Amino acid sequence: MTDSHCHLASHKFPASEIPELIARAKEAGVYRMVTLATDEEDIPRNVAIAETYPEVFACVGIHPCDVHLTRDDFEEVVRPHLCNPRVAAIGETGLDYYHPAPEGWTEEDYHARQRDFLRRHFELAKESGLNLVIHTRDRSGTASFDDALAIYGDYSSSVQAVFHCFPGPTELAERVLAAGALLSFTGVATFKNAQICLDAARAVPLDRMMVETDSPYLAPVPNRGQRCEPAFVAHTAQRIAEAKAIPLAELVETTDKVCESVFRFEK
């Protein structure tokens, strides 16, 4: 299976451990991983990992929580990597209305810069023919989803978007699907309070979804509380297969095909 979203360049994964992480993933049946950048310094580290390990592909982009630390012409940092065959998509980008605005920024200006960056990531995707991985998070309500979906509407005819780490509910999943985007589920689906997430996973057609770890975060049960790693995506896949009442092999086969339709996995 494929871990469609992890962060192997995270400081929580020392470079010396990467071979062991990949080996454990392969032992768990995870033969392919997509590692995503979040800031300017993170981009070359993720690309280097993808260039070193054939099991790994990279995505390049600026996370919404880092827009205030990023140069205005961030495209000049991202664009040179888009022709690299080890780069599979653009991301992680999106809108984060959960974390407070940094010092010196108003909420309005901070969120406006995030929206501007998201649009410009979509422009890069349209220009390069790559697809996009979107982060959304709110303190309450669905404002980040609403705004991201509105922006996606301007690009949905030319760019496929994946809303990663989807928590539910089903009504929001239906809106994302109606917009033409895809959804990806994390270890949240295995948590004790995961009913809303599982209800959404049941409702989403198998050919419109992926599974991921978002490692080193959100370790699934039975690894809850540990540092998450790509091998753990097997637990999430198993739980969602159970919730959908289908064989694990069917979920793995179909979600792998979804990944291959979204990401550029060149040999």
TrEMBL record:
MF GO annotations: DNA nuclease activity; hydrolase activity, acting on ester bonds; metal ion binding
Positions annotated to bind a divalent metal cation 1: 5, 7, 92, 214
Keywords: Hydrolase, Metal-binding
Residues noted as binding a divalent metal cation 2 in the record, renumbered to the chain: 135, 164
UniProt keyword annotation of Hydrolase present: yes
Membership in a protein family: Belongs to the metallo-dependent hydrolases superfamily. TatD-type hydrolase family.
Protein known as: TatD family hydrolase
